[in-house]
Design brief:
The structure is a homodimer of 205-residue chains. With 205 residues, chain A is mainly α. Chain A has two domains: 47 residues, Homeodomain-like (Arc Repressor Mutant, subunit A); 140 residues, Tetracycline Repressor, domain 2 (Orthogonal Bundle). Chain A contains nine helices and no strands.
Chain lengths: 205, 205
Protein backbone atom coordinates (compact mmCIF):
# COMPACT_ATOMS: atom_id res chain seq x y z
CA UNK A 1 0.00 0.00 0.00
CA UNK A 2 1.11 3.61 -0.43
CA UNK A 3 3.88 2.87 -2.88
CA UNK A 4 1.65 3.01 -5.90
CA UNK A 5 2.47 4.92 -9.06
CA UNK A 6 0.03 7.44 -7.63
CA UNK A 7 2.65 8.37 -5.02
CA UNK A 8 5.24 8.66 -7.79
CA UNK A 9 2.95 11.04 -9.69
CA UNK A 10 2.30 13.08 -6.56
CA UNK A 11 6.05 13.47 -6.02
CA UNK A 12 6.59 14.45 -9.67
CA UNK A 13 3.77 17.02 -9.59
CA UNK A 14 4.96 18.53 -6.32
CA UNK A 15 8.56 18.66 -7.55
CA UNK A 16 7.56 20.28 -10.82
CA UNK A 17 5.67 23.11 -9.17
CA UNK A 18 8.32 23.62 -6.48
CA UNK A 19 11.10 23.71 -9.11
CA UNK A 20 9.11 26.20 -11.19
CA UNK A 21 8.61 28.36 -8.13
CA UNK A 22 11.98 28.22 -6.45
CA UNK A 23 14.46 26.36 -8.61
CA UNK A 24 16.24 23.11 -7.88
CA UNK A 25 19.03 23.94 -5.43
CA UNK A 26 16.75 25.45 -2.81
CA UNK A 27 14.62 22.30 -2.54
CA UNK A 28 15.02 19.46 -0.08
CA UNK A 29 13.57 15.97 -0.35
CA UNK A 30 11.65 16.49 2.91
CA UNK A 31 9.85 19.54 1.50
CA UNK A 32 9.00 17.75 -1.73
CA UNK A 33 7.50 14.84 0.23
CA UNK A 34 5.56 17.18 2.50
CA UNK A 35 4.08 19.02 -0.48
CA UNK A 36 3.30 15.74 -2.21
CA UNK A 37 1.78 14.29 0.95
CA UNK A 38 3.85 11.11 0.79
CA UNK A 39 6.27 9.61 3.34
CA UNK A 40 9.98 10.10 2.73
CA UNK A 41 10.44 6.35 2.29
CA UNK A 42 8.28 6.54 -0.82
CA UNK A 43 10.60 9.09 -2.34
CA UNK A 44 13.62 6.82 -2.25
CA UNK A 45 11.52 3.89 -3.39
CA UNK A 46 10.82 5.74 -6.66
CA UNK A 47 13.84 8.03 -7.01
CA UNK A 48 17.42 7.22 -6.19
CA UNK A 49 18.27 10.86 -5.58
CA UNK A 50 17.07 14.42 -6.04
CA UNK A 51 18.99 14.52 -9.33
CA UNK A 52 17.13 11.48 -10.65
CA UNK A 53 13.87 13.17 -9.69
CA UNK A 54 14.93 16.37 -11.47
CA UNK A 55 15.64 14.38 -14.64
CA UNK A 56 12.19 12.77 -14.41
CA UNK A 57 10.55 16.20 -13.94
CA UNK A 58 12.46 17.53 -16.96
CA UNK A 59 11.43 14.53 -19.08
CA UNK A 60 7.75 14.84 -18.14
CA UNK A 61 7.76 18.55 -18.83
CA UNK A 62 9.47 18.09 -22.18
CA UNK A 63 7.13 15.24 -23.21
CA UNK A 64 4.16 17.58 -22.71
CA UNK A 65 5.84 20.54 -24.40
CA UNK A 66 7.03 18.41 -27.31
CA UNK A 67 3.45 17.27 -27.92
CA UNK A 68 2.42 20.94 -28.14
CA UNK A 69 5.33 21.87 -30.41
CA UNK A 70 4.59 18.87 -32.66
CA UNK A 71 0.92 19.80 -32.89
CA UNK A 72 1.80 23.36 -33.85
CA UNK A 73 4.89 22.90 -36.01
CA UNK A 74 3.78 19.76 -37.85
CA UNK A 75 0.31 21.19 -38.55
CA UNK A 76 -1.18 22.34 -41.83
CA UNK A 77 -0.58 26.08 -41.58
CA UNK A 78 1.96 28.03 -43.58
CA UNK A 79 5.38 27.70 -41.90
CA UNK A 80 5.71 31.27 -40.61
CA UNK A 81 2.18 31.10 -39.20
CA UNK A 82 3.20 27.99 -37.28
CA UNK A 83 6.03 29.93 -35.65
CA UNK A 84 3.62 32.75 -34.87
CA UNK A 85 1.25 30.28 -33.22
CA UNK A 86 4.14 28.82 -31.23
CA UNK A 87 4.89 32.28 -29.79
CA UNK A 88 1.23 33.00 -29.09
CA UNK A 89 0.75 29.70 -27.27
CA UNK A 90 3.97 30.26 -25.33
CA UNK A 91 2.60 33.61 -24.18
CA UNK A 92 -0.79 32.08 -23.32
CA UNK A 93 0.87 29.32 -21.27
CA UNK A 94 3.05 31.80 -19.35
CA UNK A 95 0.00 33.96 -18.79
CA UNK A 96 -2.04 31.04 -17.46
CA UNK A 97 0.83 30.10 -15.12
CA UNK A 98 0.98 33.66 -13.85
CA UNK A 99 -2.79 33.66 -13.20
CA UNK A 100 -2.41 30.45 -11.16
CA UNK A 101 0.68 31.12 -9.08
CA UNK A 102 1.07 34.89 -9.17
CA UNK A 103 4.27 35.10 -11.15
CA UNK A 104 5.57 34.31 -14.62
CA UNK A 105 7.45 31.04 -14.13
CA UNK A 106 9.52 31.33 -17.29
CA UNK A 107 10.88 28.36 -19.20
CA UNK A 108 11.77 25.46 -16.90
CA UNK A 109 14.58 24.40 -19.25
CA UNK A 110 16.03 27.90 -19.39
CA UNK A 111 15.72 28.27 -15.63
CA UNK A 112 17.51 24.98 -14.97
CA UNK A 113 20.15 25.76 -17.61
CA UNK A 114 21.20 28.90 -15.82
CA UNK A 115 20.86 27.39 -12.37
CA UNK A 116 22.28 23.92 -12.93
CA UNK A 117 24.23 23.49 -16.12
CA UNK A 118 27.64 24.11 -14.58
CA UNK A 119 26.90 21.75 -11.67
CA UNK A 120 25.25 18.56 -12.80
CA UNK A 121 26.53 17.01 -15.99
CA UNK A 122 23.56 14.65 -16.36
CA UNK A 123 21.12 17.56 -16.20
CA UNK A 124 23.22 19.66 -18.57
CA UNK A 125 23.26 16.85 -21.15
CA UNK A 126 19.51 16.34 -20.91
CA UNK A 127 18.88 20.06 -21.32
CA UNK A 128 21.23 20.13 -24.32
CA UNK A 129 19.21 17.35 -25.94
CA UNK A 130 15.97 19.24 -25.34
CA UNK A 131 17.28 22.49 -26.80
CA UNK A 132 18.70 20.58 -29.79
CA UNK A 133 15.27 19.02 -30.32
CA UNK A 134 13.66 22.48 -30.18
CA UNK A 135 16.20 23.84 -32.68
CA UNK A 136 15.56 20.80 -34.93
CA UNK A 137 11.83 21.51 -34.97
CA UNK A 138 12.25 25.20 -35.67
CA UNK A 139 14.86 24.43 -38.36
CA UNK A 140 12.44 22.12 -40.20
CA UNK A 141 9.86 24.92 -40.18
CA UNK A 142 12.40 27.46 -41.45
CA UNK A 143 13.48 25.09 -44.26
CA UNK A 144 9.82 24.79 -45.23
CA UNK A 145 9.54 28.60 -45.31
CA UNK A 146 12.78 28.80 -47.32
CA UNK A 147 11.43 26.45 -49.99
CA UNK A 148 8.38 28.68 -50.33
CA UNK A 149 10.56 31.77 -50.60
CA UNK A 150 8.99 33.24 -47.47
CA UNK A 151 12.31 33.89 -45.70
CA UNK A 152 15.91 34.69 -46.57
CA UNK A 153 18.46 32.96 -44.35
CA UNK A 154 21.99 31.84 -45.11
CA UNK A 155 22.02 29.01 -42.55
CA UNK A 156 18.68 27.56 -41.43
CA UNK A 157 20.16 25.86 -38.36
CA UNK A 158 21.88 29.02 -37.12
CA UNK A 159 18.65 30.93 -37.75
CA UNK A 160 16.66 28.33 -35.78
CA UNK A 161 19.11 28.63 -32.91
CA UNK A 162 18.68 32.41 -32.95
CA UNK A 163 14.90 32.10 -32.87
CA UNK A 164 15.14 29.78 -29.84
CA UNK A 165 17.68 32.12 -28.20
CA UNK A 166 15.34 35.09 -28.72
CA UNK A 167 12.49 33.06 -27.21
CA UNK A 168 14.57 32.21 -24.13
CA UNK A 169 15.78 35.80 -23.76
CA UNK A 170 12.31 37.31 -23.98
CA UNK A 171 10.88 34.72 -21.57
CA UNK A 172 13.69 35.67 -19.16
CA UNK A 173 12.64 39.33 -19.34
CA UNK A 174 8.95 38.36 -18.98
CA UNK A 175 9.87 36.50 -15.80
CA UNK A 176 12.00 39.38 -14.51
CA UNK A 177 9.21 41.92 -15.02
CA UNK A 178 6.46 39.41 -14.22
CA UNK A 179 4.81 40.61 -17.40
CA UNK A 180 3.97 38.48 -20.41
CA UNK A 181 3.39 41.43 -22.76
CA UNK A 182 7.17 41.25 -23.23
CA UNK A 183 6.46 38.21 -25.40
CA UNK A 184 4.55 40.21 -28.01
CA UNK A 185 7.89 41.15 -29.56
CA UNK A 186 8.64 37.52 -30.48
CA UNK A 187 6.74 37.42 -33.75
CA UNK A 188 8.15 40.65 -35.18
CA UNK A 189 11.65 39.71 -34.03
CA UNK A 190 11.34 36.29 -35.61
CA UNK A 191 10.33 37.85 -38.91
CA UNK A 192 13.32 40.19 -38.70
CA UNK A 193 15.74 37.39 -37.81
CA UNK A 194 14.50 35.32 -40.75
CA UNK A 195 14.43 38.16 -43.24
CA UNK A 196 10.72 37.44 -43.70
CA UNK A 197 8.47 39.62 -45.79
CA UNK A 198 6.35 41.29 -43.15
CA UNK A 199 2.64 41.04 -43.94
CA UNK A 200 2.24 44.68 -43.05
CA UNK A 201 5.23 45.69 -45.13
CA UNK A 202 6.45 47.45 -41.99
CA UNK A 203 9.96 47.15 -40.61
CA UNK A 204 10.01 44.22 -38.25
CA UNK A 205 11.50 45.67 -35.07
CA UNK B 1 41.77 43.40 14.00
CA UNK B 2 40.46 41.23 11.14
CA UNK B 3 37.33 43.27 10.55
CA UNK B 4 38.96 45.45 7.97
CA UNK B 5 37.43 46.31 4.64
CA UNK B 6 39.90 43.73 3.36
CA UNK B 7 37.73 41.03 4.94
CA UNK B 8 34.66 42.58 3.30
CA UNK B 9 36.38 42.43 -0.08
CA UNK B 10 37.43 38.83 0.48
CA UNK B 11 33.82 37.89 1.25
CA UNK B 12 32.56 39.73 -1.84
CA UNK B 13 35.13 38.11 -4.11
CA UNK B 14 34.44 34.63 -2.73
CA UNK B 15 30.69 35.13 -3.00
CA UNK B 16 30.95 36.39 -6.57
CA UNK B 17 32.88 33.38 -7.79
CA UNK B 18 30.73 30.93 -5.82
CA UNK B 19 27.53 32.51 -7.17
CA UNK B 20 28.90 32.39 -10.73
CA UNK B 21 29.80 28.75 -10.26
CA UNK B 22 26.80 27.41 -8.39
CA UNK B 23 24.10 30.04 -8.09
CA UNK B 24 22.76 31.67 -4.95
CA UNK B 25 20.41 29.14 -3.37
CA UNK B 26 23.00 26.40 -3.07
CA UNK B 27 25.37 28.58 -1.04
CA UNK B 28 25.64 28.81 2.71
CA UNK B 29 27.29 31.54 4.73
CA UNK B 30 29.72 29.01 6.22
CA UNK B 31 30.99 28.01 2.79
CA UNK B 32 31.38 31.62 1.69
CA UNK B 33 33.42 32.39 4.82
CA UNK B 34 35.57 29.29 4.37
CA UNK B 35 36.34 30.21 0.74
CA UNK B 36 37.03 33.80 1.75
CA UNK B 37 39.20 32.69 4.66
CA UNK B 38 37.40 34.90 7.18
CA UNK B 39 35.61 33.97 10.42
CA UNK B 40 31.83 33.78 10.34
CA UNK B 41 31.60 36.69 12.77
CA UNK B 42 33.13 38.93 10.12
CA UNK B 43 30.39 38.02 7.70
CA UNK B 44 27.62 39.32 9.92
CA UNK B 45 29.70 42.34 10.82
CA UNK B 46 29.66 43.41 7.18
CA UNK B 47 26.47 41.82 5.87
CA UNK B 48 23.16 41.52 7.67
CA UNK B 49 22.15 38.47 5.65
CA UNK B 50 22.96 36.41 2.59
CA UNK B 51 20.48 38.52 0.63
CA UNK B 52 22.30 41.73 1.56
CA UNK B 53 25.53 40.11 0.40
CA UNK B 54 23.91 39.05 -2.88
CA UNK B 55 22.80 42.64 -3.51
CA UNK B 56 26.34 43.86 -2.83
CA UNK B 57 27.76 41.25 -5.24
CA UNK B 58 25.24 42.31 -7.90
CA UNK B 59 26.08 45.99 -7.41
CA UNK B 60 29.84 45.39 -7.66
CA UNK B 61 29.43 43.27 -10.76
CA UNK B 62 27.18 45.83 -12.41
CA UNK B 63 29.49 48.73 -11.51
CA UNK B 64 32.31 46.97 -13.38
CA UNK B 65 30.13 45.96 -16.33
CA UNK B 66 28.60 49.43 -16.57
CA UNK B 67 32.09 50.94 -16.85
CA UNK B 68 32.76 48.60 -19.78
CA UNK B 69 29.44 49.33 -21.46
CA UNK B 70 29.98 53.08 -20.99
CA UNK B 71 33.47 52.90 -22.46
CA UNK B 72 32.17 51.00 -25.49
CA UNK B 73 28.78 52.62 -26.09
CA UNK B 74 29.77 56.21 -25.29
CA UNK B 75 32.91 55.98 -27.42
CA UNK B 76 33.71 57.60 -30.76
CA UNK B 77 32.88 54.76 -33.12
CA UNK B 78 29.87 54.60 -35.39
CA UNK B 79 26.84 53.39 -33.40
CA UNK B 80 26.50 49.95 -34.98
CA UNK B 81 30.23 49.35 -34.56
CA UNK B 82 29.80 50.08 -30.86
CA UNK B 83 27.19 47.34 -30.60
CA UNK B 84 29.47 45.00 -32.51
CA UNK B 85 32.29 45.74 -30.07
CA UNK B 86 29.92 45.13 -27.15
CA UNK B 87 29.18 41.63 -28.48
CA UNK B 88 32.85 40.91 -29.18
CA UNK B 89 33.90 41.98 -25.70
CA UNK B 90 31.04 39.95 -24.18
CA UNK B 91 32.33 36.90 -26.01
CA UNK B 92 35.93 37.62 -24.98
CA UNK B 93 34.89 37.97 -21.32
CA UNK B 94 32.91 34.71 -21.37
CA UNK B 95 35.83 33.02 -23.07
CA UNK B 96 38.30 34.30 -20.46
CA UNK B 97 35.98 33.07 -17.69
CA UNK B 98 35.79 29.66 -19.32
CA UNK B 99 39.59 29.49 -19.54
CA UNK B 100 39.84 30.26 -15.82
CA UNK B 101 37.13 28.09 -14.31
CA UNK B 102 36.45 25.48 -16.99
CA UNK B 103 32.95 26.49 -17.88
CA UNK B 104 31.11 29.40 -19.46
CA UNK B 105 29.61 31.21 -16.46
CA UNK B 106 26.98 33.09 -18.46
CA UNK B 107 25.55 36.41 -17.38
CA UNK B 108 25.31 36.76 -13.60
CA UNK B 109 22.21 38.95 -13.94
CA UNK B 110 20.48 36.49 -16.25
CA UNK B 111 21.45 33.59 -14.01
CA UNK B 112 20.08 35.29 -10.91
CA UNK B 113 16.94 36.40 -12.77
CA UNK B 114 16.01 32.84 -13.59
CA UNK B 115 17.08 31.50 -10.22
CA UNK B 116 15.86 34.22 -7.89
CA UNK B 117 13.38 36.62 -9.41
CA UNK B 118 10.28 34.84 -8.16
CA UNK B 119 11.71 34.51 -4.64
CA UNK B 120 13.38 37.67 -3.46
CA UNK B 121 11.67 40.92 -4.30
CA UNK B 122 14.69 43.06 -3.42
CA UNK B 123 16.89 41.09 -5.81
CA UNK B 124 14.23 41.14 -8.53
CA UNK B 125 13.95 44.93 -8.30
CA UNK B 126 17.71 45.41 -8.45
CA UNK B 127 17.95 43.12 -11.49
CA UNK B 128 15.09 45.03 -13.16
CA UNK B 129 17.00 48.28 -12.66
CA UNK B 130 20.13 46.78 -14.18
CA UNK B 131 18.33 45.43 -17.25
CA UNK B 132 16.55 48.79 -17.67
CA UNK B 133 19.92 50.52 -17.55
CA UNK B 134 21.26 48.12 -20.20
CA UNK B 135 18.22 48.74 -22.41
CA UNK B 136 18.67 52.52 -21.90
CA UNK B 137 22.27 52.33 -23.10
CA UNK B 138 21.44 50.20 -26.14
CA UNK B 139 18.46 52.45 -26.94
CA UNK B 140 20.67 55.56 -27.00
CA UNK B 141 23.00 53.79 -29.44
CA UNK B 142 20.08 52.71 -31.64
CA UNK B 143 18.69 56.27 -31.68
CA UNK B 144 22.12 57.45 -32.79
CA UNK B 145 22.08 54.88 -35.60
CA UNK B 146 18.53 55.89 -36.52
CA UNK B 147 19.54 59.53 -36.92
CA UNK B 148 22.31 58.47 -39.29
CA UNK B 149 19.87 56.33 -41.28
CA UNK B 150 21.89 53.17 -40.47
CA UNK B 151 18.90 51.22 -39.11
CA UNK B 152 15.14 50.98 -39.62
CA UNK B 153 13.18 50.44 -36.41
CA UNK B 154 9.66 51.50 -35.49
CA UNK B 155 10.33 51.65 -31.74
CA UNK B 156 13.90 52.14 -30.57
CA UNK B 157 13.15 51.05 -27.00
CA UNK B 158 11.46 47.82 -28.06
CA UNK B 159 14.34 47.18 -30.45
CA UNK B 160 16.85 47.75 -27.63
CA UNK B 161 14.94 45.32 -25.43
CA UNK B 162 15.07 42.72 -28.21
CA UNK B 163 18.82 43.16 -28.63
CA UNK B 164 19.31 42.64 -24.88
CA UNK B 165 16.95 39.63 -24.96
CA UNK B 166 18.91 38.09 -27.83
CA UNK B 167 22.13 38.67 -25.90
CA UNK B 168 20.73 36.93 -22.82
CA UNK B 169 19.33 34.06 -24.87
CA UNK B 170 22.58 33.42 -26.74
CA UNK B 171 24.61 33.64 -23.52
CA UNK B 172 22.22 31.05 -22.04
CA UNK B 173 22.94 28.69 -24.94
CA UNK B 174 26.69 29.40 -24.69
CA UNK B 175 26.52 28.38 -21.03
CA UNK B 176 24.45 25.28 -21.81
CA UNK B 177 26.90 24.07 -24.48
CA UNK B 178 29.92 25.48 -22.64
CA UNK B 179 30.87 27.00 -25.98
CA UNK B 180 31.30 30.69 -26.66
CA UNK B 181 31.21 30.34 -30.46
CA UNK B 182 27.43 30.53 -29.96
CA UNK B 183 27.98 34.24 -29.41
CA UNK B 184 29.24 34.83 -32.95
CA UNK B 185 25.59 35.02 -34.05
CA UNK B 186 24.96 38.17 -31.97
CA UNK B 187 26.26 40.69 -34.48
CA UNK B 188 24.37 39.33 -37.49
CA UNK B 189 21.21 38.92 -35.40
CA UNK B 190 21.49 42.45 -34.09
CA UNK B 191 21.77 43.78 -37.65
CA UNK B 192 18.70 41.76 -38.62
CA UNK B 193 16.70 42.91 -35.58
CA UNK B 194 17.54 46.54 -36.34
CA UNK B 195 16.92 46.34 -40.08
CA UNK B 196 20.53 47.43 -40.54
CA UNK B 197 22.20 47.57 -43.92
CA UNK B 198 24.61 44.67 -43.67
CA UNK B 199 28.12 45.69 -44.70
CA UNK B 200 28.43 42.54 -46.75
CA UNK B 201 25.04 43.03 -48.32
CA UNK B 202 24.34 39.46 -47.19
CA UNK B 203 21.17 38.35 -45.42
CA UNK B 204 21.72 38.74 -41.74
CA UNK B 205 20.71 35.38 -40.29
Amino acid sequence: MGRTSDARNKILTAAQSLIELRGYSALGVAEICKTAGVPKGSFYYFFESKEVLALAVIDEHWAAQQRDWDRILLGDQEPLQKLRQLFEETKAAQHAGQATCGSVAGCMFGNLTLEMSTQTEAIRLRLQQIFEAQVDMVEITILEALRRGDVVVADAREAARSVVAQLEGQVLLAKLYNNTSQLDALWLNCQALLGARSEQGAPAA
